[in-house]
Amino acid sequence: AWEAERASGEYWTSTTSVPEAKLLAALFINTHQALRTVKELLAEPNINLHLRPPAIDDHVFPLVSSGHDWPLWHACLNGSVEYAALLLSHGSRTELDGDDMTPLMTAAVCGDPEAPLLVELLLRYGASTARTNSLGFNALEVAHASRTNSDECARLEHVFGSIHPASDHVITMLAEAGRGQLRKRGGGGGG
Questions:
Q1: Are 191 and 169 in contact (CB under 8 A)?
Q2: Using an 8 Å Cβ cutoff, are 30 and 75 in contact?
Q3: Does residue 125 register a pLDDT over 60?
Q4: What is this structure's pTM?
Q5: For the residues of 38-62, what is the DSSP string, one character each?
Q6: According to the model, what pLDDT value does residue 153 have?
Q7: Greatest Cα-to-Cα distance within the chain, rounded to the nearest angstrom
């Protein structure tokens, strides 16, 4: 019953204090306070990490209005490895039915320098490289269609082609994310 209630537009616009709305709003902000808020919300027993608000054209909740937004998708849109690692380690799925632009596709096209690490994280959690959007493109094809920098494409191709069982740096990254110690890395990659 609460799932149907939370899927209604009235639920989302009645108050921005609902946990799912607070989580989506916090994912837009890259501050220590927002990170604490995300961690607190992930500890709530009834929070739904896969709930998407309906399409809302409302000034009360302007940040989330497309009707397909959900926490992991937003973390990938913003290129946030830290938030994505937290969400995945708390049970977020890598894909939802009805997604035309999956989190993996979104991560592959985001302009953040951390995109290859984000793509690797999603792949290690089982994101499908074969899933296609409504135009028939998979995540790597979407990345190629949206990027003009051949070096960026080559880095993503390398990540897509080299995923093996979880490497030490990904395991360390997930452990650090759970303790709130993950920091943005400079260009050089993992180790």
A1: yes
A2: no
A3: yes
A4: 0.72
A5: HHHHHT-TT--TT--PPP---TTST
A6: 82
A7: 49
